[in-house]
Fold this protein.
Amino acid sequence: MRTKPALTDEDVRKMAAAAEAHAAANQWNVTVAIFDDGGHLLYLHRGDNTAPSTVEMAMGKGRTSVLGRRETKIYEEIIKQGRTAFLSAPLVAMVEGGVPIVVDGEVVGSIGVSGVKSEQDAAIARAGIAALGLAG
């Protein structure tokens, strides 16, 4: 039997606060979604003046990232390179902004962000992950 790390409530709160602080510092209105390793939602917050559609996008990015065990940017790049069959894959959001949370080589969750440019969404997610002393 093997053991693996798991996110705690405190971890989730730290990441959420750091991600939202990064967004606020840049005056970006976003939705932040944090998932466990099974793709279950642990945290969701839509900021003031953020479009309602960002909720589904942030959740889709986060879920896609954790279930695929990679950044959603990778799927976006694959599609841009002409592998359009990925558009029919059962993943939800294949656009940058979903980043896995990796501890000791194990994906323990993910953060999905939506509301600004995709690369800015990803930067917000990485800021959240960095709050745990991890690279995103």
About this structure: The longest helix spans residues 9-25. The helical segments are 9-25, 53-68, 72-80, 118-130. The two ends are 28 Å apart (CA to CA). The first strand starts at residue 31 and ends at 36.
